[in-house]
Design goal:
about 375 residues; mainly beta; Methylamine Dehydrogenase, Chain H; eight-stranded antiparallel β-sheet; four-stranded antiparallel β-sheet; 1 helix
Length: about 375
């Protein structure tokens, strides 16, 4: 068991038979102990589900510190990383960080920051390295209820995050837009393309999907992701038997690097479009899985969605080759969706890795 103290962390061993606690150590961030990087009061603490890591939140230092945990006696054996507000990664939202909780996979960590009225999301890349993914701040992208946020909890299935605040608010966030099976009623494609490459070196992984719709889709259906909380988008890839193989997300609002994520093009016209580019982070790696996302309203052939991703922050692409049919769905939280189904006849490449060549999937639907 770990207990934050005024300027350190107390470690206790628990007897599973009777629950008694035995003191192991107190590590002091400000002194000469093994814990460094967290100054003053460690306001929040979370242990990863697999027990390999411990994260501490320093509300005075506006930082998160990650430590390796000795599985034998629970001691904090070494500092792995420190994520500080601002800094070289342009992290936003850690001002007064006070509470932490892991998702059930152990690959995603959520932090609540009282001074910045924000929820910060950290996640691992394919190499298991944690990095900043996204920040939701009160009033940004239509988000409300985070003023003075001070507690955070993740549901057991990981699909929802709950926060409470000093203003008496309870806010609920959905973490997963992709449903278990493809929706049956979506805009169909006039044309669509899908390309996936899975390299042995995950930093070279890439995916691209583009679709032009057969239908007219209006601005009120694509929504405005700069300010509408229902305008977050998901990209969902399903294999044979409607098995969900990949889920990527482009949340509404937020900052990507030092700039706002979303940019509007002709927002007050029938051809309104919104682009999301993901800012550089950690030597050029982007944190949201996607590098670029675009949605455009308009008549058939003009309305389109485009999503591209590359690098080790993408989820693993080891599902290639895929048994057809393959469905790709793009949808927002308001229920608007586009769906392309690629049959065996639409697939041009569906190959396993061979030598230095990656596993490759390429498919096209066209008139």
């Amino acid at each position: 068991m770990y207990l934050p103290t005024w300027n350190g962390v107390a470690v206790f061993a628990r007897n599973p038979a009777d629950g008694r606690l035995t003191f192991v150590e107190e590590a002091f961030p400000r002194l000469t102990g093994p814990v460094v990087g967290v100054r003053y009061y460690a306001a929040g603490l979370a242990v990863s589900p697999d027990g390999s890591r411990v994260f501490l939140a320093s509300s005075d230092y506006d930082a998160l510190a990650e430590y390796a945990r000795d599985p034998t006696d629970g001691r904090l054996s070494s500092l792995v990383s420190v994520l500080k507000n601002g800094g070289p990664s342009h992290v936003r939202g850690l001002g007064g960080v006070v509470a932490l909780d892991f998702g059930p996979s152990g690959n995603v960590l959520f932090a609540a920051s009282r001074h910045d009225s924000a929820v910060v999301v950290e996640a691992t890349d394919n190499d298991g390295v944690f990095g900043w993914r996204w920040t939701a701040r009160n009033g940004d992208g239509g988000t409300i209820g985070l003023g003075g946020v001070n507690k955070i909890a993740v549901s057991p299935d990981g699909r929802h995050v709950y926060t409470t605040s000093e203003t008496g608010s309870l806010a609920v966030f959905a973490t997963e837009l992709c449903p278990e099976a493809p929706p049956s009623t979506c805009f169909a494609p006039k044309r669509a393309r899908l390309s996936v490459k899975d390299f042995a070196d995950s930093s070279r992984d890439r995916i691209r999907f583009g679709l032009r719709s057969l239908s007219t889709v209006g601005p009120d259906e694509i929504r405005d992701p700069r300010s509408d909380p229902a305008a977050g988008y998901g990209v969902c890839l399903y294999g044979q038997g409607a098995q969900l193989l990949l889920a990527l997300h482009a949340p509404p609002g937020g900052y990507c690097g030092a700039k706002r994520c979303w940019r509007a093009i002709r927002p007050d016209t029938a051809h309104a479009a919104y682009k999301r580019r993901f800012g550089e982070l950690q030597a050029g790696k982007q944190p949201d899985g996607l590098q670029f996302f675009m949605v455009r309203a308009g008549e058939p052939g003009v309305n389109k969605v485009v999503a591209t991703g590359r690098g080790s922050y993408l989820p693993p692409l080891g599902f290639v080759p895929v048994d057809p049919p393959i469905d790709v769905v793009v949808l927002n939280a308001a229920g608007t969706c586009w769906r392309a189904t690629f049959t065996a006849a639409d697939i041009r490449r569906n190959l396993a890795a061979s030598g230095s060549k990656p596993a490759r999937l390429a498919a096209k639907v066209s008139p």
